[in-house]
Every structure is written in structure tokens, then in C-alpha cells.
């Protein structure tokens, strides 16, 4: 499988695209005015403790206060190490209003929710996550081979013991990308994360809450650390200055990656050249066409996302059950890609076309699970419910592509529907009737959109005449070109 990363760098926005066999799979966007916060360290101030929820709000200097649950707080013992468990602790014993606390962002602000915080602090490198207040060595669950897990744990434990006296210890989590890494490659991470942490010591002491203590790498640099893996053949970036920064960083940090990084000097925009722009635009549409002629309908709401599978123009060659099965198989692969591309998270309900054959149901679920193995976000899938629905969850760590690039329609307020001109006309009639009983005016002037005025003067003209006769006053009409279909005003004269 051919994989490459394309990076479009600009002064206001950086975009990263992961492409597999020429098909866009994932998109990451970071804007200068609204950078992601995950990984950032803050000295915050507790502004409210919520005993009923066993949680607290912490001011970290953002628009909305961050949220921390008691499970995200572990007290530090005399040796500067976190106590392993505080399941029975009361939030009031750990935090109080006005208290300064060092926290780290684990989830970006999403919609109306503030950032999710923890006191389990860590600093990330390519292969390791360093936890200064822990003595634990863990490993990513995505590394499944037990022999490899033991090998990596042994390497990290050896290195931790070797550096313990010099750097005063700490714990580590071995990242998924470490699978297959040599001892020397992993060793390079340890001085890197130790230096970052110890350089922060003075900043932590001097800072007054709320204050940013440590900011994670910019998106194009995080690409090397977080997205790169052995089967990615090339990284192309269209900014020479950023290319030089990436190459220098890779040379010091991950030398084996340096040869993969290329500067794209072409005049044609890199995302346009590789078809990424068109794919992003399609990812903002609710309808996703399948090669067979079937299609998906993807709808995202605040509570959940739903995906409906339809056969569309595909009629198959043998029978209806075969048509449904083949459409669902194709849809399962497309759904896995759409979840990554659109970055949909939370509860997801998939309505596959009803299948009578239990084996067909199992094969469709296996296909979905197989394609989701490539997803870096944690997913969990249930079987087919009695209603024929597949329920799943996907970990939500950042805004979806649609929420990041779009905003609710100011006309329909995000409903996706507009009241018909007929409905607006009847609202106007009721409003005129109500005001005629309150005011002793001579006439009413209705200001509305062209469509509504046209209907009032045509299909509803007899109703207008009856209303004028009933209230004993004249009704006039005026088109306002800037009004939306649902907007209108009634002026008394």
C-alpha cells in the first residue's frame, strides 16, 4: 500500500493530508488564530468545585474554563510520585476554589464545552510519552504481539534505570509507533523529553495562574512525531522554510525520516494537484456516492452522528439479497474512511440495508472492523441490533472537519430546513390579526422576501382580501431583497 503525507503551509492555516493509494483518508487543520490545545501545560486556577459531579472548572486563560474530573487528579506523595488510585477520593479533598494547579489538556474545546484537563502530566516524543510524576511503564494496546510488547518494555525499563539518577526518574508509555524500533532509536527520546520537562521547572515556579507553561509542537512538526509510520513513503510540504525546519528537526530527532521529506516547489497548489481540495469539499456534503451506484447519507448532530446506507441506482445481477449484501460491503469500507476523513466522534448509528442472512451480517461487520483497524482513534462496535442498526463509538479528541470548517446556517439556524412561503404567509396573517386588535392604525405594510410577497399577491390574494375586509384596514406589500425566506416585518401606519 502506497501512503504519503501532503502538507499545505500558510501564514494563517496549516493543513495536513494523509493519502493512501491516491485516496484521501485523513485531514488535519490548524489555524493560527485557533490552534489545538491538546498536550499544552497550564498553570490554572480552580474557579468552581462541583461535589455532585466530582469535578471542577479550572481557568486556564481560554474563553471557556477547562473541566477536570476527580479521576483525572491524583495526589503527589512525598517522593513526587502520583498515588496510583484515588477512586474513593472526594473532589473537595483534592481541589478548592482559588487554588492554583498544574494541568494538561487531554481534549480540545468542542462546541460549547471547555477543554478536558488532567493532572497526570506528560511530555510526548516519537516513541515514548514521559510522565514525570509516575513510576509506571506502560505500552500501547495497539501493539498486540506479546513478544514485541515484552521486548519494548524491557528496553524502556533498562533505559529508565540507566537515566534515573541523572534525570530523577519518571514513568513512560510506549507509543504504537515504537513497534519494531531499536534500542538506540528509543534511547534518543529519553534525553529529549527529560530536557523539555526540566527546562519547564523555572517557568512553572514563576508563572501566575492562569498561564501557558508549555505549548506542543505546531501541526507540521507534529506530523513527524505523531503521524509518520514505516509504510509512509513521502512527506511533501509546499513551504521551503517549513521544509527546512522539518528536515532539521528530523535529522536530530528521527534521522530515518529525513530522506522521506521533500519540498514541493510547484506553482499549482499541492492540495489541488493531488485532488485533496475536491475530496475535502465532498467530505462536507451529507451524501457520499458509492461506486456501485448506492450512497450514504451522513448526518452529524450534537448528540450523535447517523449514517444511512441506500442502494440507489444499484440493482445487482441476481437477486435483491445479493444487491443488498454487496452494497453493504462497499458501504462498510466507505463508512470507515468517512469516519476518519470527517473525524466524526462520539456515538455513531449506522443503518445498513436490512439483511436476512446472518452470515451476511457477520461479514459486513467484519469488513467494517477490518477497515477501522487503520483508524488511530479508538473505536468500539456492537453487533446488529433488533432494529437492524449498528451502534458504535469513536473517541472524540478534536472538532470534526465539518464543525471546524463550517458554521450553522444563519438562515435556518442549523436545522437544515426552512419554513415554506405558505407557512410564512399564514404567520403574517396571524400577526396582522393580532396587531389589529391592539392598535388603531390605518394600514399595515408587510416587508418580506420576494417568494413570500409573490405568494401573498398570487395564491393568497383572496385570503388577503378577506383579511382586509375583516379588520377594516388596508394591507400593502414591499419586497426586501436582503430578507431570508423566514424573515418579515409588519409596519403600522
Question: Could you characterize what this model shows?
Answer:
The structure is a single chain. The chain is of the alpha+beta class. It folds into four domains: 3-34 and 218-277, Nucleotidyltransferase, domain 5; 122-213, 2-Layer Sandwich (Ribosomal Protein S5, domain 2), CATH 3.30.230.10; 286-405, no CATH class; 421-492, Hypothetical Protein Ychn, Chain: A, CATH 3.40.1260. Helices cover 33% and strands 26% of the residues. It contains 16 helices and 24 strands. The chain has helices spanning 91-94, 146-167, 183-187, 189-199, 201-206, 219-227, 240-253, 255-258, 270-273, 276-283, 320-342, 358-372, 401-405, 421-436, 450-457, 461-471; strands spanning 3-9, 13-20, 23-31, 41-50, 55-59, 66-69, 100-107, 116-118, 123-124, 128-131, 137-139, 171-174, 211-214, 232-237, 261-263, 287-289, 295-300, 305-310, 346-351, 379-384, 390-394, 443-448, 474-479, 488-492. The strands form five sheets. Strands 4, 5, 6, 7, 8 and 13 form a six-stranded antiparallel β-sheet that branches. It has a six-stranded mixed β-sheet with strand order 16-17-18-19-21-20, covered by helices on one side. A five-stranded mixed β-sheet has the order 3-2-1-14-15, sandwiched between helices. A hairpin with a 4-residue loop joins strand 17 and strand 18. Helix 14 (421-436) packs across helix 15 (450-457). The longest helix has 23 residues, at 320-342. The N and C termini lie far apart (73 Å).
Amino acid at each position: 500500500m502506497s501512503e504519503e503525507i501532503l502538507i499545505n503551509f500558510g501564514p494563517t492555516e496549516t493543513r495536513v493530508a494523509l493519502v493512501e493509494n491516491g485516496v484521501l483518508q485523513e485531514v488535519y487543520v490548524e489555524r493560527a488564530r485557533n490552534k489545538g490545545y491538546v498536550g499544552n501545560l497550564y498553570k490554572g486556577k480552580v474557579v468552581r468545585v462541583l461535589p455532585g459531579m466530582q469535578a471542577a472548572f479550572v481557568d486556564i486563560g481560554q474563553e471557556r474554563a477547562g473541566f477536570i474530573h476527580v479521576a483525572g487528579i491524583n495526589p503527589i506523595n512525598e517522593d513526587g510520585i502520583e498515588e496510583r488510585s484515588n477512586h474513593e477520593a472526594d473532589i473537595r479533598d483534592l481541589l478548592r476554589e482559588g487554588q492554583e494547579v498544574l494541568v494538561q489538556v487531554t481534549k480540545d474545546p468542542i462546541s460549547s464545552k471547555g477543554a478536558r484537563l488532567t493532572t497526570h502530566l506528560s511530555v510526548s516524543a516519537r516513541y515514548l510519552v514521559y510522565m514525570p510524576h509516575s513510576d509506571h511503564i506502560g505500552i500501547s494496546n495497539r501493539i498486540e504481539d506479546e513478544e514485541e510488547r515484552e521486548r519494548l518494555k524491557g528496553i524502556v525499563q533498562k533505559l529508565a534505570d540507566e537515566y534515573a539518577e541523572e534525570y530523577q526518574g519518571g514513568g513512560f508509555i510506549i507509543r504504537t509507533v515504537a513497534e519494531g524500533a531499536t534500542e538506540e532509536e528509543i534511547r534518543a527520546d529519553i534525553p529529549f523529553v527529560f530536557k523539555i520537562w526540566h527546562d519547564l521547572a523555572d517557568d512553572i515556579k514563576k508563572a501566575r495562574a492562569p498561564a501557558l507553561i508549555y505549548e506542543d509542537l505546531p501541526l507540521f512538526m507534529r506530523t513527524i512525531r505523531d503521524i509518520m509510520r514505516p509504510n509512509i513513503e513521502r512527506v511533501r510540504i509546499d513551504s521551503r522554510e517549513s521544509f527546512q525546519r522539518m528536515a532539521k528537526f528530523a535529522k536530530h530527532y528521527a534521522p530515518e525520516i529525513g530522506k522521506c521529506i521533500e519540498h514541493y516547489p510547484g506553482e499549482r497548489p499541492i492540495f489541488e494537484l493531488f485532488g485533496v481540495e475536491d475530496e475535502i469539499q465532498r467530505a462536507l456534503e451529507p451524501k457520499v456516492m458509492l461506486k456501485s451506484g448506492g450512497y450514504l447519507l451522513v448526518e452529524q448532530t450534537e448528540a450523535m452522528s447517523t449514517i444511512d446506507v441506500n442502494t440507489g441506482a444499484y440493482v445487482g445481477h441476481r437477486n435483491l439479497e445479493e444487491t443488498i449484501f454487496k452494497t453493504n460491503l462497499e458501504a462498510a469500507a466507505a463508512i470507515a474512511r468517512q469516519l476518519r476523513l470527517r473525524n466524526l466522534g462520539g456515538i455513531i448509528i449506522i443503518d445498513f440495508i436490512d439483511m436476512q442472512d446472518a452470515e451476511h451480517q457477520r461479514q459486513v461487520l467484519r469488513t467494517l472492523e477490518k477497515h477501522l483497524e487503520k483508524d488511530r482513534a479508538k473505536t468500539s462496535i456492537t453487533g446488529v441490533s433488533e432494529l437492524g442498526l449498528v451502534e458504535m463509538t469513536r473517541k472524540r479528541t478534536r472538532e470534526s472537519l465539518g464543525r471546524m470548517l463550517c458554521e450553522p446556517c444563519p438562515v435556518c439556524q442549523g436545522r437544515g430546513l426552512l419554513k415554506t412561503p405558505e407557512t410564512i404567509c399564514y404567520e403574517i396573517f396571524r400577526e396582522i390579526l393580532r396587531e389589529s386588535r391592539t392598535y388603531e392604525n390605518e394600514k399595515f405594510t408587510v416587508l418580506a422576501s420576494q417568494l413570500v410577497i409573490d405568494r401573498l399577491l398570487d395564491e393568497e390574494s383572496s385570503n388577503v382580501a378577506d383579511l382586509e375586509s375583516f379588520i377594516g384596514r388596508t394591507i400593502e406589500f414591499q419586497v426586501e431583497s436582503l430578507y431570508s425566506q423566514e424573515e418579515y416585518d409588519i409596519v403600522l401606519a
